[in-house]
Structure prediction request, 440 residues.
Amino acid sequence: MKQTNLKKILVLLMFLPLLGLCQPVITSWQLNENGQKASYWLPNGNPPSITYSYVPTNDSASVLKVCYRTDSVWVYSHGMVFNMGKYSNPGGVSAQHYIYRFPRTQTVPTTKIISPKVGAIGCLVNGIPMYGLGDSKSWNGSTNSNMGPGVWNVEVYKGEGVSLDTALSAHPQQQGAYHSHAKPRRLYQNTPITQHSPIIGYAFDGFPVYGPYGYSTPTNSASAVVRMKSGYSLRSITTRTALPYGVTASQAGPPVNGTYPIGTYCEDYEWLASNGGDLDKYNGRTCVTPEYPQGTYAYFVTIDGAGTPQFPYYIGIEYYGTPDQANIIGLGQTATAVKFPVSGTSCNLPQNLDEIIKPYSINVFPNPTKGEFKITTNENVGLYTKVQVLDLLGKEVFSADFSSESTVVNLPPHTNKGIYFVRILGKHSEVYVTEKIVVE
Prediction:
């Protein structure tokens, strides 16, 4: 099935009197209109001797549902697309159940909100989440081993760029959640560089993210189209004792040397007006675009002349606007607390997808646990074949067959206290459910 079958959503505005009231944040999403299934390339072996197996799935590709009220837009996807690119980190891709919410009226706060280093910062128009600048490791005084944000955070493209695919600069994390860190080439590759790039996604503050090309004069759509240049550059430092813009670090990082060269950490970069970039420190600007002829604030994907992604890739260290923080979740989680509102919503939903968008569910109890817990489900257990328990690093600590509506898990003796993830897998190792459990 060709990608061209995935058309841009055209919302029937029976609920709105004027076509002009319809916003790009409603209409820009790539909607699965024909039930197309997702597929990916599973890597086998290790670099440089990787081979790939093509894996079709029974999970739906692209965006499955778009709903809106006067204040917000909700977008639902499995976080998968047809023919995902060839990434090189281990593990397969599995369906998630993302519901993201975007404000239709954006606000610009005086005190800015930091964009997450780890996890989603926005969503691409095909339903794949955009992730932040960190690769989940930070300096802990001796090594880059801390999970989650710290003072000196390993910069994601330097840390993980080699493992990203060439389609969306994406790969899956330990729980199978496919996500993009840098240029989503597939979403703008068919637009000539002489034309303004299309919208490739939205940040959680509701402002659009465009591909790498925009008008040379921000307020003139008749001006030449040029590549948008980042205003960020590497700092001229030999010690890591201060953060960008002169803020003293609460913890010194490693010296700048061959082991930890400049550029290893997000904090090795700073935005300077003297760099002559087209974009501000949030990696955007106020400008006119084809979708916003009256003007908007917009972020832009940043690449160099050779097409190599350039820091900060999607958005800067902070959001320009006020993000809907219900979308922002903790390390390792693969679902959000955002729900579709019960009433007052206009939805565009393809036929025959009502059952597809219903997330599978399980009950895990007791939670917290001392090491023994029960899993129950009312779903069709014929879908499920295996239960796994993973630690925060993605290491399997338990696995067993899952073949009944009630399964008891006994974790190995002396399992460390902490947070773990319970996964229920299907016959092709696709993940149907991921739940968090605390061992105490």
Remarks:
- The chain has two domains: 3-348, 363-439.
- Confidence is low (pLDDT under 50) at residues 1-21, 351-359.
- The longest strand covers residues 51-60.
